[in-house]
């Protein structure tokens, strides 16, 4: 989708968009620059019998069958199965299991500190703009548009541009040579989460130490906890009688197969006796609702709010693709990481809540203000009713966590929706953002957009808004 080199010169085009009229100079001062790497760099050849890896991080064995190693040490992989591989440490000959996301195959780009495998351009932006990365920090990642090619990025706190030809730059750490910024240091990469313990699905209640109560929801509490004295997790404790254990396990077995960067990972359960525990990955910033209301959250600029919305749309687009339904999409069920990555939580959980508790009636725990009219009136939950809820979630985001339909009771909301009422555009909300909400609130479910469409619109809107916002004095 991008132009190529002409007479050895770089040809410029804005990232993520179709080619625009070519300009032969560098981008506007202060741009972040993304370029394609030579394809040969991303296609290393290695024989199966020489499957050697190098450690990217230190790892201290947690279980007797694990293998400890230090960053930079070499190992030979003996068995590959899931997230844990059996390997031999070459320096000692010791064997054991290792987390596969802590190592990389030798003689590949993955061993380089500046290479980030499998991350999107949007996540690259988040990493580069995270605290600790100086201007000029850079990375190379896989191209999203062309298999076998890479993209590289430089952080300079400005809009994103792309260099598209196979054009090699030399000595960029010493001179900018036409770049927006001289390269300084590789982007700081957060240490990845260790894979969950092998075969640990139904775990003993005694293996969990509940340490800090993070919040209380309609059907239970959420705690920060430690599993087996070494792994920080989040634990949702369900109120006794709120759900059938059999129905929950059936749904949980589906939920744990849904793996995506924008979905909270379900690790394990405790169901042998009540209360049921649901163990998930721990997210440092807590719920999006609480974050938006916090001092830090209220300082987030408009582009960041739009970014939150696009991340959630990305996760819901995956759920949509998997023919699954969330049923309770709102800011309270979105969790936020230290890097401000949003992940969808509690997907599918509403389906197994006891019907007497989860019904649309005044005074009930049913989230009426987020629920589509056809779901309120007829119990018809579909991905399109999730789209309606997403529109309400957008209103939560743009108002920094304000309760939807302020000042209205549940029954007043139901009657107002029947008359065709929709929440007005709040002060300071871009018209384009509000139009996304209004499309989500179409009366006929089939007229509402897909999450894939919402994701595309919001990502493009984020890029446009980020550029306009950062160019302002």
Automatic annotation (TrEMBL):
GO cellular component, one term: nucleus
Keywords: ATP-binding, Golgi apparatus, Immunity, Inflammatory response, Innate immunity, Kinase, Lipoprotein, Myristate, Nucleotide-binding, Nucleus, Phosphoprotein, SH2 domain, SH3 domain, Transferase, Tyrosine-protein kinase
GO molecular-function terms, A-Z: ATP binding; non-membrane spanning protein tyrosine kinase activity
Membrane topology designation: Lipid-anchor
Reaction(s) catalysed by this chain's protein: L-tyrosyl-[protein] + ATP = O-phospho-L-tyrosyl-[protein] + ADP + H(+)
Pfam families: PK_Tyr_Ser-Thr, SH2, SH3_1
Origin species: Varanus komodoensis (Komodo dragon)
Name assigned to this protein: non-specific protein-tyrosine kinase
Taxonomy of the source species: Eukaryota, Metazoa, Chordata, Craniata, Vertebrata
Domain (Protein kinase): residue spans on this chain: 208-462
Compartments (UniProt record): Golgi apparatus; Membrane; Nucleus
Region called Disordered, residue ranges: 1-28
Binding site for ATP: 236
Domain SH3: residue ranges: 48-108
This enzyme's EC code(s): 2.7.10.2
BP-aspect Gene Ontology terms: inflammatory response; innate immune response; vesicle-mediated transport
PANTHER family cross-referenced by the UniProt entry: TYROSINE-PROTEIN KINASE
Domain of life: Eukaryota
SH2 domain residues: 114-155
